Amino acid sequence: MSDFFKNPLSSSSTDSAARKQAIMDQVRNELAQANAQQLMNNMNERCFKACVTKPGDSLSSSEQTCLTRCLDRFMDTFNIVSKTYISRIAKERSESESTPFN
User: Fold this and answer.
1) I want to staple 70 with a disulfide (CB 3.0 to 4.6 A). Which of 14, 42, 47, 88 is the partner?
2) What is known of its domains (predicted)?
3) Nearest to 32 by CA among 40, 77, 20
4) Rounded to an integer, what distance in angstroms lies between the CA atom of residue 70 and that of residue 72?
């Protein structure tokens, strides 16, 4: 009952900020999912082209080995590129924060 007497304008800005943050979080999650899906599609397409020369009912042992190595290499490369990119962004942020404004 005490909520009835609260000023509706005082909580609207916090509600608005919370909604905005929730929407931004949802968009980030959707982008992350889309990026993960794109990564999987690229891996599958490239590794399939490289390893499966004669599609059939099953994979030969050499095709299985090739696919495993290709997927591992693709993920390793993706992880290296991601770490390097994140480090670069963090470095640029710290440099921009430490640079005084003129």
Assistant:
1) 47
2) The twin CX3C motif contains 4 conserved Cys residues that form 2 disulfide bonds in the mitochondrial intermembrane space.
3) 40
4) 5
